[in-house]
Amino acid sequence: MKRIRVLHVIGGGEFGGAERHILNLATAMDPQRVAITVCCLFADPFVQVARDVGINALAIPMRHKLDLSIITKLRDVIKEEEADLVHTHGVRANLVGRLSAKMAGRETVITTVHSLLAQDYPDVFSRLANMLIERASRGFSTHFIAVSGGLQKALLQQGIPEKKITVIYNGLNPGDFTSLRPPGSWRESMGLAPDVPLVAMIGRLHPVKGHRIFLKAAAEFLKSRPEVRFVVVGSGPERDRLEDYARLLNISDSVIFTGFVTDVVDILPDLNLLVIPSLWEGFGLTALEAMVAGVPVLATSVGGLPEVVEHGTTGLLVPPADDAALARGINWMLDHPGEALEMSEAARAVVEQKFTASVMARKTEYLYRRLLEE
């Protein structure tokens, strides 16, 4: 069987869900069947992260947002790598990847949709500009992968034909979530006692992730449970504003901002609860990571999250943008450790059956071959 050569194009200026998606996909592919190269439009951090796990990754940094010289450079990479198809992720990567593929004479371009643009850009001007850029080049994509049914529905509403959309759920490698460090190591490194309840959220510090709702719920919760500590894992443009907000709420002493963490697997075993308070979530890869690590999950009922977390069975769901409901959910989970443990055990089983990287890779390779044969 012919080996397919695929060039993935992504911004790579952060380490969010799309980057983790590519890591899981690339490492799960059989390199004898699918050869993957990842091209980033920023020099770090993703290029090095990808290289560290053995992925062929390179950077062609854009000098500024309107640096269109990147298109010819990327065209040359497509030819040098002898890519059979181009697979894009994110607005900027979609634009330059699609145009470069066209210039290189490649007819098959796949775009994975990880989120809703309307939610990714809180600033009205940025949102409109990015939506226009996306729609202007969308016709160059042969096919779209939606990482959830919720995103597929959104794409259909935007006028993309159903035959051009395939839903392939995100997946991970369960074996990657066995920490090599003894349980409690991260707590100890942070100076936290073994019996201190830890409630965390993990993700880039962006308004759509709902960090302010999380902090507001924490402020309400801490009035009756001051011994609990809340952990914010991740980096992003909201860091300073969120720390200011924690000070405004007078909860700074109870909130830990870790910044960027390379291996969340070292943190997960020490958590009592993972909270996902997103205002929108295309899928919810962080939920999977917690579920396979045995950490109970409390999430909002938005986007693809209800497809990942089944309320009352594999976790709890609450309405979005409702800090009172979030605080009640946190309280229930910590007050019912037995039920929370049962949910986490059921969740782990679901991940191993339905949401593995091997399943994702198999379905993606099948799509690659089908499109190339058309």
Descriptors for this entry?
single chain; 374 residues; alpha/beta; Rossmann fold; 2 domains; 7-stranded parallel sheet; 15 helices
Give the SSE order as H and E letters: EHEHEHEHEHHEHEHEHEHEEHEHEHHH
Major β-sheet strand ordering: 3-2-1-4-5-6-7
Task: Report helical residue fraction.
Answer: 40-55%
Identify the CATH homologous superfamily of the largest domain. Glycogen Phosphorylase B
| Average pLDDT taken over every residue | 94
Major sheet: 7 strands, parallel
Shape designation: globular
| Class by SSE composition | alpha/beta
The top level CATH class name of the largest domain: Alpha Beta
Strand content bin: 15-25%
| DSSP helical segment count | 15
**CATH architecture label name of the largest domain:** 3-Layer(aba) Sandwich
CATH topology of the largest domain: Rossmann fold
The total number of structural domains is 2
* First-residue to last-residue Cα separation: 17 Å
Number of strands: 13
* Unreliable runs: none
Gyration radius, in Å: 21 Å
